[in-house]
Design goal:
Layout (H helix, E strand, L loop, with lengths): L2 E4 L6 E5 L4 E2 L15 E2 L14 E2 L13 E2 L7 H10 L5 H11 L5 E5 L6 H11 L3 E2 L10 E4 L1 H4 L5 H13 L2 E3 L2 H10 L16 H10 L16
Parallel strand pairs: 5-6
Antiparallel strand pairs: 1-2, 1-4, 2-3, 7-9, 7-10, 8-9
Length: 232
């Protein structure tokens, strides 16, 4: 039971039927209305801890709010990871290796891709452009500007909460999808056509799948529904 009550005149505790607040015991007092308000059991709901997204960087630079949980590059070192890639010899010089490590410890920009199979996709593009916080990813779709990126610092800045709420709302409605730039490449290289048959066997959460659907229907044209009398 989620709750407990004090029943009738006896003052003894008994399980309570939440629907009608009556004692559900089999005793003669079963139909007696509870004399006291329901009491929630102690520790029934534990407060969930507040989680913060961990990002790399330095708050001293002023590019990221000081309230953001930060991790130093040193705390993210992995000896086995370093040894493995060192032995591959793909980074011949120490300078190349240092640049590689620096890149790994740099927060990625926010990437979003507008879904053109939604009728109001152009309105979403206009909203991203007017916000002034994003730049179009020109190599993806220079004509329609359906892919955009925003710096990590700008997206998480406290003054840009309204923009964050807009992006999250648009993602929920399906007018855009959170998608990193590197994730946008495979469907383009696949050269999907309108008559293609594609089986995506690694879709989680499915941003590339949605992109494939967009590419397959890119040539489709939206038409306004013609008004017509509806009869039974």
């Amino acid at each position: 039971m989620d709750t407990e009550c004090v029943a009738g005149e006896t003052g003894s505790k008994a399980p309570c039927d939440v629907d009608n607040h009556r004692n559900i015991d089999t005793s003669p007092s079963a139909s007696v209305q509870c004399a006291r308000p329901l009491k929630r059991k102690k520790n029934q709901r534990k407060k969930q801890p507040d989680y913060q997204r961990v990002r790399y960087g330095n708050t001293a630079t002023g590019t990221v709010p000081a309230t953001t949980t930060m991790m130093s590059p040193e705390s993210c070192a992995n000896e086995m990871f370093d040894r493995y890639y060192r032995e591959q010899g793909i980074l011949p010089t120490d300078n190349d290796w240092d640049n590689f490590q620096k890149t790994l410890r740099t927060s990625l920009p926010l990437g979003v891709r507008v879904s053109q199979f939604r009728e109001d996709w152009q309105r979403t593009v206009d909203s991203l452009r007017s916000a002034g916080l994003c730049t179009p990813i020109s190599w993806f779709d220079a004509k329609d500007c359906t892919a955009w990126k925003c710096s990590d610092a700008a997206y998480h800045h406290p003054e840009n909460k309204s923009f964050v709420e807009f992006v999250k709302s648009a993602n929920t409605m399906g007018t855009l999808t959170f998608q990193e730039e590197v994730s946008m490449l495979p469907p383009l290289l696949l050269d999907v056509r309108s008559d293609s048959v594609v089986l995506d066997m690694c879709a989680a959460p499915g941003s590339k799948t949605v992109e494939i659907v967009d590419l397959m229907h890119k040539a489709d044209v939206w038409h306004e529904a013609e008004s017509a009398d509806v009869t039974d």
